[in-house]
């Protein structure tokens, strides 16, 4: 039932025979799934050369033809969503419904890029001199080296691939070794849709070695990375050294501002769902809750009850709302943050423990009265852990929310237009959600500020990294 894993280079699927491999296990049961082949240096070079050769022809393919191909990819993704989602659940533990929804959402992104790729317009600039023609045109940059994360393996990778391919670029994707099956399926989608060999290539292996080789290659012109802040800093420094343009969508530590006039029941229901989505392993997961003093105790009790009621289990079981963490290292890292906070005097309102004896399940956890010196107040937990603090004024809430170097997502709950406007203007974040969450649509930009990165993984802005601007003057 679990698919065979492979590399995909120059239009060929390359299996594990005769190669170094990594054993894959179900994080919910620890049962073996399969073997992931790792790329060696010669494979990386072959992928770059294939992408470079393919770019020469792909850049000349009309936007209409590129659009038609991407539409075929989207249609195939919709047809195969159940099987892709099931394998993804076995890889990283997320509930099946969420995994299938990820594939369907990615299909929307492909369709959107298929259309927007036809609208990469230039312009004519009036000349100061008679008889001179001045044109500004947009051209594909070249080979893209892309690095995608394990928490949304299909969705995040497809955003990069669809934008690059629609723009006329070719791509070498270094996939996440923790959750590979969806990307092998993605390569199969492009292959079956008729994408020319070499336009899309897929690698796995030693992350540091592959990253360095790709970024240092003179044939690679753009770097797109989604992942942690520390790794993003390293790759950005390396890319900057070699003058590569970049898109960096990095980690967050999302603040939540809940004001006295908020609809508590609606806020609790939404935030409990967002906090436990993918077991909290989401860069935009709400984490630091700042609740105004008038409703603090009421909100804390309701939110603790909502987290405790979340059904945790294997993602293939009916009704499961939250699966396991990706591996034991992630469980230990999350639990260490909880224990550190408790040792410093934080109050545990719910969770804080392992669930069961098999798999990497951590109970949804709420900590109150957490000292500012606790690690969880400064380090992204990337797990089902939330902290709660009290505030009195809007300025106090904004000061606490903006205190960290992160600036990806943020959330506000209030019935006051004035408060919503002040919070929306004052939050230092790339995305502000007021009384709801609406960041995943393809027509919207997706990115952060400060240490959470730069560039966009969505919207028309997502084409910027893959297109260069050329001025043509002619007399």
UniProtKB/TrEMBL annotation:
It comes from Variovorax boronicumulans. Keywords: Oxidoreductase. It holds the Pfam family Aldedh. SUPFAM superfamilies: ALDH-like. It is an enzyme of class 1 (oxidoreductase). The keyword Cell division does not apply. Belongs to the aldehyde dehydrogenase family. Residues 14-471 form the Aldehyde dehydrogenase domain. GO terms for molecular function: glutarate-semialdehyde dehydrogenase (NADP+) activity; succinate-semialdehyde dehydrogenase (NADP+) activity. Its EC number is 1.2.1.16, 1.2.1.20, 1.2.1.79. This is Succinate-semialdehyde dehydrogenase/glutarate-semialdehyde dehydrogenase.
